[in-house]
Amino acid sequence: xxxxxxxxxxxGVNKYSTALGRIxxxxxxxxxxxxxxxxxxxxxxxxxxxxLCNTKQPGCPNVCYDEFFPxxxxxxxxxxxxxxxxxxxxxxxxxxxxxxxxxxxxxKHGPNAPSLYDNPSKKRGGLWWTSLLSLIFKAAVDSGFxxxxxxxxxxxxxxxxxxxSESPCPHTVDCYISRPTEKKVFTYxxxxxxxxxxxxxxxxxxYLVGKRCLQTLGPRHQKSRCQGHLPDxxxxxxxxxxxxxxxxxxxxxxxxxxxxxxxxxx
Length: 266
Prior knowledge:
Mean pLDDT: 74
Largest sheet: 3 strands, antiparallel
Radius of gyration: 32 Å
Number of helices: 7
Helix content: 55-70%
Shape: elongated
Distance between the termini: 94 Å
Oligomer: single chain
Structural class: mainly alpha
């Protein structure tokens, strides 16, 4: 598998990511993709060739291997990395589409033409929802694969010896896994990095939702506070035309003068 193309695409995601998103991308590129390319494929390269059983019955080692390793760990990790990184590319394509429209609009109407979008890379509207859903999807994918690995290897453990009694084995035979300790350590490493990525995704979801709530509720709260500064007894004619209603001093002065005039001229 050629991972250079995927690395090149992911490097462009940094441009539209938050600080938490950049940390997540660094963890994925350094501790997952590069670790997979450098170590994982070599560690599991001899998984079936060196899976030995203490019998010469034809077909017994293959059946026992399929019983304990129905799916290759390396292929599962490759599928996991592809599914985890693809949603980030959707965010890049979501930003690239309005930028492409903006570029064609400038070519057609000239550089002084009014812009179609204020800021295409700003996370709002559809882009905000795309980012949020991509984060939830990435966390769900990592969680699902952690559960799959837990089912394949109980407690993510790689035993040294497994007992097999599947047909066509003549009796219960012992089968030996090659380099079990190295595979166990690497499995723990991949599980730990997946958990870190899940926490980063959930933290970024919390950040995006919290920031959106502040942007939505903040102006309303500020507007209600500004309106609360005006006294309830302020008559409407106390404001002259052209004056801003938030000028509290002028409102109070005109209201006071109106009250004095009303007392002098009954």
